[in-house]
Amino acid sequence: MALKKSQLKVGDVHEEVVVENLSRGLIVMYAGTSGDYNPLHSDEVYTTQVAGYPSVFAHGMLTMGLTGKMLTNYVGDGRLTKYGVRFTNQVWPGDTLTAKATVAEVRDDEVDLTLETVNQDGKTVVTGNATARIDA
Amino acid sequence: MADKVTMPIEASHIMMFARSVNDDNQVYYDAEYAKKTEVGHILPPPTFYRAVAQYDPDYFLRPKVGQKWFGSAKGPTGIDEKPKSSGGLHAEQHFEYHQPVQPGDVLTVTTKPGKVWEKESKRAGKLTFTETIQEYRNQKGELVVTSRGVGVKTERPVDQG
Asked: What is the pTM of this model?
């Protein structure tokens, strides 16, 4: 399942749809498992009437988790050494997200990836980088 | 975040967390399946470590016994004064993985503040960024994960235009 150096080249792309029509239910599940009950993510009344947003929106960490699914599917379980992201736009109920990893550098035992997750309108919601151990 | 928090790694928490990030990889659910993989055991998904919030008695984004909660109840907010800011958002998150983690491990998580900086933005006014560094050590004292998070407080809600 792990990536092999001999099969990797700079510019290779791995892409997955990581969530379709994101539900408020999934956002609530994420609040429950992560312990982050910020009402901006699960409380439509507070978020629209007090915080001034059009609706609740996903935790950044949910989008990072969804992007992480694409990443571990690509590099294999337990192979990541680094994974970092910047949250560039909010993710809303109903969004469909596609996460993409592009090979940036291949070394003897590691690969560097650049990451981008976009919504159904092509708007970037997350950018990032990851490094994973690879086989020869 | 409290300065020092104990985070027991539990298979059921990993299972529920994997569900909540829409991930059906059986390595997060099935110990027998996981045994046959390269890793050899159930392991947490890569972003699991921020769920340390569950184990922090002081975590401010959780309703607590006997305390008012700022989310809606009878009215749109459960506190008397209007919250000062639109709330914090997460700007960046970075993990480094040093050693494998599995159910049964007990991690000690230390939190220390990092840098603070400000920036003007067209979409949300003045932005105040705050960095937090967390170190996760296992029961043997080995550093297993490092986390660097950046939170941002906005002057007003982020413009969606």
From this structure: 0.95
